[in-house]
Write a structure and sequence with these properties.
The complex is a heterodimer of chains A (453) and B (516). With 453 residues, chain A is α/β, with parallel strands linked by helices. Helices cover 31% and strands 14% of the residues of chain A. Chain A folds into 2 domains: 20-92, Alpha-Beta Plaits (2-Layer Sandwich), CATH 3.30.70.20; 159-452, Aldolase class I (TIM Barrel). In chain A, strands 9-16-15-14-13-12 form a 6-stranded parallel beta sheet. A two-stranded antiparallel ribbon of chain A has the order 1-4. A two-stranded antiparallel ribbon of chain A has the order 2-3. In chain A, helix 10 (289-298) packs parallel to helix 11 (323-336) and helix 12 crosses helix 14 (401-426). In chain A, 45% of the residues are buried. Chain B has 15 helices and 21 strands. Classes of the chains: A alpha/beta (453), B alpha/beta (516).
């Protein structure tokens, strides 16, 4: 039995107060100035009015973040002087894909390292675009179930990076002739992508590498970022390089090449220098992706990293497809040609929360690479001010590596636990078995078809 | 509004069940005010100081918003104001409303900013306020509130009942809303409930004892049931024993022989819609000494029930389970609560052949006291898909009339009940709707800290005092009565004399996206 994978989260408070969903409006013109001990504010069960303070860094009152929305002050005030409404600052967070809910929930997970739990039933829309139009299955009575969440049964989240041989060859003395290629075990199906924007200091890069080490996963890193400090984590780095030279790949267990015409030659060259190295090819999700993946796989690619844009959409298309459909197409075409186990698929772009991770695997990828969730764990507001050279509202430039490492590890712990919850509900004990299990998911269009038409 | 007692206008609501051992008091609708000083309204109506107390507004308003006392006009009762609708209608028919008829222009109408901060897509502010209105008055909500559907843009919110153009006139008295919970077992009592719904499982620990008792009293007067949830059977519920379902869930908290023998229905909870595939959650701070005693657990330690039953890994194991209860309680009925996986139809058939009387399917958008957000949103299918699937399969297997199919998980209104039944259920289980009637605002903080600060989902000694049993009972009776009135109206408009005629009548439903 392999060692059980366990992440230790450490509570790491926010540096900046996130926007609250609601904003409290105190209408002083209606205040009757009741004696202090008779004021409803005194009775707040969450002590919001006594714990509120003015945050001098952000120049704002933190009350909206503290308020839990019980309406007791609003309904109790003797002259209706308190009311509240939806906070516009909350509503403008992110965009239609990276919703305020996803962003604030990521802050929360990075802070506590825990699975977000709340009371009352689901309150969102019935269905939605992308991954929201899919429900995962669960098992009961007629199918075996797993109780993995509290460690009662072990659920493995390990995947293998690399190619597998379709069969083994033996000589007449039953000695093994084929040389099994290197397989790297990744204890959690997530690797880190380079962060796409943000005021990225050396500290953030270092934090990403440290987090990759703690989680025993990999971090893809642009070759210009390889400083001696970062190279201390060499075993967890995947340099993104355009050409092969001995000094460029020495000491690494994995390298990544952007897709180009002679990329398979680069793969061969790298393997010639270091036969143990695992190579990854970075490919864009576009019109020709299926054909290209088949071509590369037949040519001996080991790991293919498919990148969509940050909203999970195809690039350069007028009517872009979403990764959910694209992953399925790639996966199924590999299955049809009996090539699926020859290659490992990693998908990036549009993986915004833990449920997306599970659903992407169900659609057919082996693992995912994430970038923006890590940035959001560091309190990024996704405002993209930095792209225009404007100052960062959460001062990413002043981040300390230790704090950032803990935030990333916390987020990954929360995701890991949520992945286990989804798998436990389905009765699946191995994330490798979850891959392509589309029959254990329910699709909105299929259910609508079956039920109403 | 004055406080009035109006007896419910029907005979069916009275006790009919010969097996029932406790006489039911006749449920009476009574005006039951909010516990809070300021009701939340859709509109804000302000009267400025230029008011000359002429009394025009009092005469003009049909809804009782304005009152003038000798000392002067009172603050407008905004909760009764229908707002913009009033203006539209009045300009068309040239009837005056308070704003345009005020000689001093002293009144202004605005929409209330707090209104949109209430609720969510499924429980819209309109639905919450209209449920409050029904719980307060026992009557249909006012026209300016959408009380039939939410805004989730799918499922029940996209379904509409289709009424025939001409139907035979039926009097209210002839319409029956009774359903039977035992369709096949002649050796066990026939249990019938007068309304096609009963209260879902809410455990001691997740909800306040006063709430549980109030629910039980309301169930007694409406001749229906409530379920104890998995936290044991508090002694305070014993007087209402004939209207209690006790639950055996995976944690087996508080399950004892005497509690199983005391009830008329025992419910196995295999899974819950809000957290399918996960066991119950009761976080540490809510495990107070009383809760810990009932559950035989340690004070302050979080109680996570396992998933699944560690003794059930097949239908055969499940049959053993059902046999055990049938043996322990020879007069009891067995209900089996399951969630909605892809093969929920197979599960349902298995449940019937294992000897259960009721299949209770709980859809994925159901309520909970605490559940991981990822499970609430993503795992298992919504109830709107599961009901037709199970109903169809049970019909094909030829056993549909031998089992009672109960649906839950997102039943918010009387219209949802009707739609669920038309999709193929016999009846429904409600939970969140009852709590909304007790003035839940759906803030979603039931699980954290000391629990609900509005006194509903908490066992904290301070907060749980906020609910008075009689007040809560009356609010629930009012809600039940309003729902029943609506159901009777729906059935009359459909030309049906019994709710049982509506079961599986898909032709009475229209999906707004696909038809016409």
């Amino acid at each position: 039995m392999p060692k059980k994978y366990h992440i230790k989260p450490k509570p790491t408070p926010n540096r900046f107060v996130p926007p609250g969903k609601y904003v409290i409006i105190e209408q002083d013109q209606y205040c009757l100035h009741c004696p202090t001990n008779a004021c409803v504010k005194k009775d707040c069960p969450y002590d919001v009015y006594t714990e509120r303070r003015f945050d001098s860094a952000q120049l704002k009152d933190i009350i909206d973040y503290l308020c839990k929305g019980c309406f007791r002050c609003i309904q109790g005030c003797k002259n209706n002087a308190i009311t509240r409404t939806l906070n516009p600052e909350y509503l403008v967070l992110g965009d239609e894909y990276w919703t305020p809910e996803i962003i604030t929930s990521t802050y929360n997970q990075a802070e506590t390292g825990k699975v977000p739990v709340s009371g009352a039933g689901y309150g969102g829309p019935f269905t939605g675009p992308g991954f929201d139009s899919m429900w995962t299955d669960m098992s009961e009575i007629v199918r075996p179930t797993r109780d993995g969440i509290h460690g009662r049964e072990y659920i493995a989240t390990t995947i293998d990076l690399g190619k597998k041989l379709p069969f083994l060859k033996f000589d007449e003395e039953r000695g093994l002739i084929s040389e099994p290629p290197t397989l790297i075990e990744l204890p959690m199906p997530v690797i880190f992508n380079p962060l796409p924007f943000g005021v990225l200091s050396q500290e953030i890069l270092l934090a990403q590498a440290q987090a990759a080490k703690i989680l025993d996963t990999f971090m893809i890193v642009n070759s210009i970022d390889l400083s001696p400090e970062i190279l201390r984590y060499q075993n967890h780095l995947v340099p993104l390089i355009n050409e092969v030279a001995e000094d460029k790949i020495r000491g690494f267990v994995m390298v990544e090449f952007p897709d180009q015409d002679d990329v398979l030659a680069l793969v061969q060259a790298a393997r010639a220098i270091n036969p143990k190295i695992v190579t990854m090819i970075r490919l864009k999700f576009d019109k020709g992706v299926v054909a290209r993946v088949l071509e590369l796989t037949k040519g001996g690619a080991e790991v293919i990293h498919l990148c969509a844009d940050e909203q999970g959409k195809e690039s350069d298309a007028t009517n872009p497809r979403f990764i959910k459909e694209m992953i399925r197409q790639v996966h199924l075409s590999l299955v049809e040609q009996s090539l699926r186990d020859r290659v490992t698929l990693i998908v990036s772009g549009g993986i915004a929360e833990a449920s997306h991770l599970a659903k992407a695997i169900i659609c057919g990828t082996d693992g995912v690479a994430i970038d923006l969730p890590l940035l959001v764990a560091l309190e990024c507001r996704l405002c993209k001010n930095c792209k225009e050279g404007l100052p960062c509202p959460v001062k990413l430039e002043t981040i300390d590596a230790q704090w950032a490492t803990k935030r990333m590890v916390n987020l990954m712990n929360a995701w890991h636990s949520q992945l286990i919850e989804v798998m436990g509900a389905m009765g699946i004990r191995e994330v490798r078995r979850l891959r392509g299990e589309i029959g254990r998911a329910m699709n909105f269009t299929d259910l609508e078809e079956e039920t109403w038409k | 509004m004055e406080i009035k007692d109006t007896p419910i206008q029907n005979t069916e609501f009275r006790i009919q069940n010969s097996e029932s051992r406790t006489p039911n008091p006749e449920p009476r609708v009574k005006y039951t005010l909010s516990r809070f000083r300021n009701p939340i309204s859709k509109y804000i109506l302000k009267r400025s100081s230029s008011c000359i107390k002429c009394g025009t507004c009092v005469k003009v308003c049909q809804f009782g918003v304005h009152k003038i006392y000798s000392a002067g006009p009172s603050r407008p009762k905004e909760a009764l104001c229908i707002g913009e609708d009033c203006q539209i209608r009045n300009s068309k028919f040239e009837i005056r409303n308070c704003i345009n008829s005020c000689p001093q222009n002293a009144l202004t109408l605005k929409s209330n900013p707090a209104f949109c901060a209430l609720g969510d897509y499924r429980w819209t502010p309109d639905l919450i306020l209209s449920t409050w209105h029904q719980a307060e008055t026992g009557k249909l909500p006012p026209a300016h509130l959408e009380y039939k559907t939410g805004a989730s843009a799918g499922g029940f919110d996209k379904l509409e009942l289709v009424f025939p153009k001409e139907v035979e006139e039926i009097s209210d008295k002839d319409v029956s809303t009774t359903i039977s919970l035992n369709c096949w077992d002649e050796k066990r009592p026939k249990v019938e409930i007068d309304v096609p719904w009963y209260g879902g499982g809410m455990s001691f620990g997740s909800t306040a004892l006063n709430v549980m008792v109030a629910r039980a009293k309301a169930a007694l007067s409406a001749n229906t049931f409530i379920c104890t949830g998995e936290g044991g059977y508090p002694d305070a519920l014993i007087p209402y024993a004939d209207h209690i379902i006790t639950q055996i869930a995976t944690g087996l908290f508080g399950v004892r022989e005497e509690t199983i023998q005391r009830v008329r229905i025992v419910e196995f909870k295999y899974a819950q819609g809000a957290k399918p595939g996960l066991g119950g959650h009761l976080l540490g701070e809510k495990v107070t000494p009383e809760v810990a005693k009932m559950r035989e657990a340690v004070v302050g330690s979080s109680l996570f029930s396992p998933f699944p039953f560690h003794s059930v890994y097949s239908i055969e194991d499940h049959k053993k389970h059902v046999d055990w209860i049938r043996e322990v309680n020879p007069k009891g009925l067995v209900s089996v609560k399951v969630s909605t996986p892809t093969d929920v139809d197979m599960v349902a058939v298995g449940i019937y052949f294992a000897g259960a009387h009721i299949i209770h399917i709980d859809g994925s958008y159901g309520g909970t006291g605490a559940a991981p957000n990822i499970a609430k949103k993503n795992i298992a299918m919504p109830i709107e898909y599961a009901i037709p699937k199970v109903h169809k399969f049970l019909c094909e297997e030829g056993i549909r009339d031998k089992i009672t199919l109960i649906a839950s998980g997102g039943i918010r209104t009387a219209y949802d009940v009707a739609k669920a039944i038309a999709l193929g259920a016999d009846g429904c289980v409600i939970g969140t709707a009852e709590l909304i009637a007790l003035e839940c605002v759906k803030c979603g903080n039931c699980e954290s800290g000391r629990g609900c600060v509005r006194g509903i989902a908490t066992t904290d000694p301070e907060f749980s005092k906020m609910i008075d049993i009689d007040w809560a009972t009356q609010r629930l009776i009012n809600l039940y009565s309003s729902w029943r009135t609506q159901l009777v109206r729906i059935l009359k408009k459909l030309g049906m004399k019994s709710i049982r005629e509506l079961v599986g009548r898909r032709d009475c439903l229209m999906h707004l996206d696909y038809e016409k």
